[in-house]
């Protein structure tokens, strides 16, 4: 039997090990190539799936637009189908949400234009007459916008519904997302907007007569010349709200947060402001005739030239309030906190005015000691 020389045996082992290594490298390269191919195939498959999905969304969107454009009472169900299809698209495709918002907003501006003269009582002290309810498709479109999936995103925040007739007495939209919305001159009389978010919204000239805004967030909104007759705003947050020249006659603002609100020139006659927080509020020239301000906090408020005739101020906090030129004839200030003789020296205080103990009537102060008013 031949004997293998040690040197030859070593060479054979080296060759064998080299072949093994090359085989391992080839296997690794094959595996890597397979993985690359698989990844490419997966990406291609995903791209095809995404493309197909986008195509389906586009088809659904086009069908919904066609449905939305159908006119006539007999096509109401078709329009409703289009509205709810668009809502589904917002949920299935977040990137299309801004487009759907724009389409539904345009639908409302086109199909729900506010009447030239909203129905309201001739007597401002009487409850206004509710306007006819908005059509069902209008109510549905507004509801879909109010509950859009991602209102917190900047591109989905602002709704342009200026000049629309959106009276919604038959449906409830609690927690509606209307932040930054443009509702200038819109009519939402008698709508249920309990706990709605209307912060920083443009509500100039809006009609909210008889609306329920209990607990609503109106902080930083612009409500100049708004109509809120007999509206319910108890517990609402109106911090830094601009309400100058607004009409709130008979409105329920009990417990409302009106800190630093601009109510200059506002009509608040007969309004309920009991327990309201009006700290730092601007009420210059406001009409508070016969308003109920029981236990309201008016610390640091501007009340100069305000009409407080026959106003109930029992238990009100008036520390640091400016009452220069205010008409307090017949007002009951007997139970207020923080009122000083200095604060009322330049006010118009009649014989019917009830002042707290220790507060001197301006008429009782010698002319030589009265400040220049």
UniProtKB/TrEMBL annotation:
<protein>
    <submittedName>
        <fullName>Pentapeptide repeat-containing protein</fullName>
    </submittedName>
</protein>
<feature type="region of interest" description="Disordered">
    <location>
        <begin position="354"/>
        <end position="373"/>
    </location>
</feature>
<feature type="region of interest" description="Disordered">
    <location>
        <begin position="115"/>
        <end position="135"/>
    </location>
</feature>
<dbReference type="InterPro" id="IPR051082">
    <property type="entry name" value="Pentapeptide-BTB/POZ_domain"/>
</dbReference>
<dbReference type="InterPro" id="IPR001646">
    <property type="entry name" value="5peptide_repeat"/>
</dbReference>
<dbReference type="Pfam" id="PF00805">
    <property type="entry name" value="Pentapeptide"/>
</dbReference>
């Amino acid at each position: 039997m031949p004997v293998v020389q040690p040197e030859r045996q070593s060479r054979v082992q080296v060759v064998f090990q080299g072949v093994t290594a090359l085989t391992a490298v080839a296997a690794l390269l094959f595996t890597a190539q397979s993985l690359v191919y698989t990844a490419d195939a997966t990406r291609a498959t995903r791209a095809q799936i995404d493309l197909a999905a986008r195509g389906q969304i586009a088809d659904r969107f086009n069908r919904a637009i066609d449905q939305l454009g159908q006119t006539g009472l007999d096509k109401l169900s078709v329009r409703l189908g289009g509205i709810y299809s668009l809502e589904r698209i917002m949920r299935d495709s977040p990137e299309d949400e801004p487009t759907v918002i724009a389409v539904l907003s345009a639908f409302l501006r086109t199909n729900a234009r506010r009447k030239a003269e909203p129905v309201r009582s001739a007597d401002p002290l009487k409850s206004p007459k509710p306007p006819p309810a908005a059509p069902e498709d209008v109510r549905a479109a507004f509801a879909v916008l109010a509950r859009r999936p991602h209102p917190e995103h900047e591109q989905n925040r602002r709704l342009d519904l200026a000049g629309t007739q959106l009276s919604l007495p038959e449906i409830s939209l609690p927690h509606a997302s209307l932040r930054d919305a443009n509702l200038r001159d819109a009519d939402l009389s008698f709508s249920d907007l309990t706990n709605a978010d209307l912060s920083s919204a443009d509500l100039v000239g809006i009609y909210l007569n008889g609306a329920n805004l209990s607990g609503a967030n109106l902080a930083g909104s612009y409500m100049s010349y708004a109509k809120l007759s007999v509206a319910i705003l108890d517990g609402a947050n109106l911090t830094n709200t601009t309400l100058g020249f607004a009409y709130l006659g008979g409105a329920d603002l009990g417990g409302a947060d009106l800190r630093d609100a601009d109510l200059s020139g506002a009509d608040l006659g007969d309004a309920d402001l009991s327990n309201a927080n009006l700290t730092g509020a601007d009420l210059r020239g406001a009409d508070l005739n016969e308003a109920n301000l029981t236990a309201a906090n008016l610390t640091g408020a501007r009340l100069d030239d305000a009409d407080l005739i026959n106003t109930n101020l029992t238990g009100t906090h008036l520390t640091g309030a400016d009452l220069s030129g205010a008409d307090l004839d017949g007002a009951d200030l007997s139970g207020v906190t923080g009122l000083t003789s200095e604060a009322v020296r330049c006010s118009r205080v009649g014989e019917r005015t009830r002042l707290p103990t220790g507060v001197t009537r301006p008429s009782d102060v010698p002319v030589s000691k009265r400040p220049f008013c």
